[in-house]
Specification:
about 850 residues; Immunoglobulin-like; Ubiquitin-like (UB roll); 24-stranded antiparallel beta barrel; 7-stranded mixed sheet; globular; PapC-like_C_sf; transmembrane beta strand; cell outer membrane
Length: about 850
């Protein structure tokens, strides 16, 4: 039943509702005085006092026996809509109680110790809650919600946006197909045109808790009248969450994502403690990639040969922060500029040292067969395992072992939580290998890592690490390559020392934020490589210009004796809240460029940037960048032109398809194969929906998908009430749920669409339904009958059927005409015969 204010009734004779208002007021007021209410009908202005049904108002919170689709809200957390049965109480047949099944109870987040004590009645179908004093149930038919107040003593640990495993939703079965495509066109003044179409994505199937995924990438390149094409299915795997262990099981092609040993690829199975299943404050850090684009550019981030991220960026410093926190190891970053130049560098992803809480054991185990970078099988079996055991409050023991063919390695270390001083871990790894040509190698590798958030100083050391590797140490990949090619290890590229640090600092009194990342790698028999980049940003006000920002970014990269330096200065002057002027100056080994650009955010879905720049030789260039956030795709357009040098253009599109038994929808996405939420608007199209800043609309079939939602974090979706059409009413405009990784969640907004009008219902014998009778549409109350059969109805559509209920049962049915009367005053008084339900 939709709730209206007095002003929402577009007719003047409101006296007709007065008896009903009095009855409802009496019922509400007397609920505080008695469990059952007996109405004094002599005080009510009703001509026919014998034809009254006040049964549904006679007891506070009373529900007629029957089944109701209701959302269950536990304290402030909403559970999925359930079919809740209300039955006469086993203690008092004049009272009804909600029948909470064992399945419902298991999803309420109750502690197992209390859940095991619950007994059941009605053939073991309905829970007795008397074992847990303090639990209060309150059904609300108007909002189709069953409110549960549960003392915290009975509930598992949870935070403001994190639910315990018992409340995680595995989603529904379905098919997904996500893609990320990029088209680049270049026409240099000297040379031939070139066109490149590249893409990557994932195809997958969800079945119960299992997620099957197949990853692909491909390119099609045309230049000099020649065409080259590649397409690869580069990884197949299935995975699921193992909730009782807080772990993730993966079967198929995988990377040995080790915190102790070097990365390797294999085909097999692994069981890994999953940090993403922990509360947010106990999780690691997600990788962050920073760089500077000199022109409109395509940024590609890959890990062990598989593309993780690919998108267009505008000419400015960029920060990519939406990578999964499950990624470990070295990321390869390639920045392809539209002027044809290419930057490449690597980023070490790092997390909190591998520590565990007291008594907790975190682990990683893998078995299978080793492969090369393209997952081609090799004749070496793999067994690997590692652990972190919280042996006391602050101390953890770390260790692991790795074996493949005639290669063996073992590691042992300790971690220490230094409380206000951060966390520290020290590990030592020893390897032993016997190669096919009777060469034996044995050596050690030692690492020290540290992390800390200095909240009082607004400083975050995301990661600081040092590793020393002996000359005779051999990694698994070096052993496999030497075994495959029957090579003698010459140590020409063997690692020696590695230094890594990532630091963030806020100077709030100055309005300055600073970032520094540094990586330095030495080798036994070749020149060292290094890369550092830093940035300073300051926000300030100048007269009427608010939030003016100044940014300084610099980097230096050294590789094989070649040094590349770059400095980027930027001044951003906002004009209002959605547009502004940006002045840039950058100087690198490739030359000096000064630029001026104008940007404008036209609305929440569209933005553009127009720019011009001049290089050291006074040659000018022009560029444009446009972004559109659609319901089905995220699209970026860019173009550059430098007279006498080149012309270029680029287009990128990111999106996907999700199909289930409930329907299908196209949608935009950033992370292919990620967790998503399908929303059902009951066949109503173009319904505006929002979630965490993202916005979309239901398609013509009444389906919408929000992709890239968080795993193991409570997600919320709500209707954009300000944009909702006047003929649509929502019983539950807000939905929330917590999904496991890769799940396809499903929720249904309870909506009513149709005309609002006044009607008179008449029975077949010429009489009227009793005062207080309910009019139902699809089981939902859309009106309550006043005296003489008058009723205000909402959600009315041509030729639709509605049920009329009194005395606890559906008594008859009304049918609306093909053409509904249109009268803005509301005084239609449409006469509707109520006939026996077929």
């Amino acid at each position: 039943m939709s709730v209206h204010t007095r002003n929402s009734f577009p007719f003047q004779n409101n006296w007709r509702l007065r008896p009903l208002v009095i009855a409802l007021s009496l019922a509400f007021f007397s609920s505080a005085l008695a469990e059952e209410v007996e109405f004094n009908l002599d005080n009510m202005d009703i001509s026919d006092r014998e034809n009254i049904d006040m049964s549904q108002f006679s007891r506070a919170g009373y529900m007629m026996p029957g089944q109701y689709d209701m959302a269950i809200k536990i304290n402030d957390n909403e559970s999925p809509t359930e079919e809740v049965t209300f039955l006469p109480s086993e203690h008092d047949e004049n009272e009804t109680v909600a029948c909470l099944t064992p399945k419902m109870m298991a999803g309420f987040g109750l502690k197992k110790s209390w859940l095991d004590k619950v007994t059941y009645w009605n053939n073991e179908k309905c829970a007795r809650l008397d074992i847990m004093p303090g639990i209060i149930l309150r059904p609300d038919l108007a909002s189709s919600t069953l409110y549960m107040s549960v003392p915290q003593a009975y509930i598992e640990y949870q935070t403001a946006n994190w639910d315990p495993p018992s409340r995680w939703d595995e989603g529904i079965a379905g098919f997904i197909a996500d893609y990320n495509t990029n088209f680049n066109y270049s026409s240099p003044a000297q040379g031939s045109e070139s066109r490149e179409l590249s893409g990557n994505g994932v195809v997958g199937v969800n079945a119960g808790p299992w997620r099957m995924r197949a990853f692909w990438n491909g390119t099609h390149y045309t230049a000099n009248n020649t065409k080259t094409s590649t397409f690869n299915w580069n990884q197949y795997q299935a995975f699921r969450a193992i909730k009782p262990w807080g772990a993730k099981l993966i079967i198929g092609q995988n990377d040995l994502a080790s915190d102790v040993f070097e990365n390797a690829r294999y085909v097999g199975a692994s069981l890994i403690s999953d940090d993403s299943q922990l509360p947010p404050n106990l999780r690691g850090y997600a990788p962050e990639v920073r760089g500077v684009a000199k022109t409109n550019a395509k940024v590609t981030i890959s890990h062990a040969g598989r593309v993780l991220y690919e998108s267009q960026v505008a000419p400015c410093p960029f920060i990519i922060q939406d990578l999964s926190d499950s990624i470990t190891g070295t990321l390869d970053v390639k920045v392809e500029e539209q002027d044809g130049s290419i930057q490449t560098f690597q980023v070490e992803t790092a997390s909190v040292p591998y520590l565990s809480r007291p008594g907790q054991v975190r682990f990683k185990a893998a078995v299978g067969q080793t492969t090369d970078d393209r997952f081609h099988l090799q004749n070496e079996r793999l067994m690997a395992g590692e652990f972190s055991w919280g042996i006391s409050n602050g101390w953890s023991l770390l260790g692991g072992g790795l074996s493949s063919g005639k290669y063996h390695a073992a590691s042992l270390g300790a971690g220490r939580d230094l409380l206000s001083f951060g966390a520290l871990a020290l590990t030592a790894t020893q390897s032993y290998a016997k190669l096919p040509i009777n060469q034996t190698r044995s050596g050690g590798s030692y690492s020290l890592s540290y992390s800390k958030r200095f909240e009082n100083y607004d400083t975050q050391v995301t990661f600081a690490g040092y590793r020393f590797t002996e000359k005779s140490y051999l990694s698994l990949n070096q052993y496999l390559e030497a075994s495959r090619k029957h090579l003698v290890i010459r140590n020409n590229a063997a690692n020696k020392q590695t230094y890594t640090v990532s630091l963030n600092k806020q100077f709030r009194t100055l309005g300055v934020s600073a970032f520094l990342n540094y990586n330095y790698q030495t080798y036994w028999n070749r020149q060292a490589t290094s890369r550092w980049n830093m940035s300073f940003a300051r926000y300030f006000d100048v007269g009427n210009f608010k939030n003016v920002s100044f940014n300084l970014s610099a980097y230096r990269a050294q590789n094989s004796g070649i040094q590349d330096d770059g400095v980027f200065l930027s001044l951003n002057v906002p004009f209002g809240t959605s547009s502004g002027l940006n002045i840039n100056a950058q100087n690198s080994d490739a030359g000096q460029i000064n630029s001026l650009s104008w940007y404008n955010r036209m609305d929440e879905r569209n933005s553009y940037r127009l720019g011009a720049n001049v290089d050291r030789q006074q040659r000018s260039a022009y560029s444009g960048y446009y972004t559109h956030t659609g319901d089905n795709t995220l699209t970026n357009y860019s173009a550059s032109y430098k007279p006498g040098q080149y012309r270029s253009a680029a287009l990128s599109m990111q999106g996907g398809l999700t199909a289930t038994a409930h329907g299908a929808a196209l949608h935009r996405t950033i992370i292919p194969g990620g967790t998503r939420l399908m929303l059902d608007t009951e066949g109503i199209s173009d319904v505006p929906i929002k979630s965490s800043g993202a916005a979309t609309h239901s398609n013509k079939f009444g389906k919408a998908v929000l992709a890239d939602v968080s795993s193991y974090i409570r997600n919320q979706a709500h209707l954009d009430i300000n944009q909702l059409n006047d003929d649509i009413e929502a019983e539950s405009p807000v939905l929330q749920l917590t999904l496991t990784e890769g799940a396809i969640g499903y929720r249904r907004f309870r909506l009513i669409k149709g005309q609002k009008l006044m009607a008179v219902i008449r029975l077949s014998d010429g009489s009227y339904p009793p005062f207080g009778a309910s009019v139902l549409s699809k089981g939902r109350e859309t009106g309550i009958v006043d005296e003489m059969g008058s009723v205000w109805l909402s959600g009315v559509n041509p030729e639709m059927l509605m049920d009329v209920r009194w005395n606890g049962n559906i008594q008859c049915q009304i049918t609306f005409p093909k053409v509904l009367p249109i009268d803005e005053s509301g005084e239609t008084n449409l006469l509707l015969p109520c006939t026996e339900k077929e």
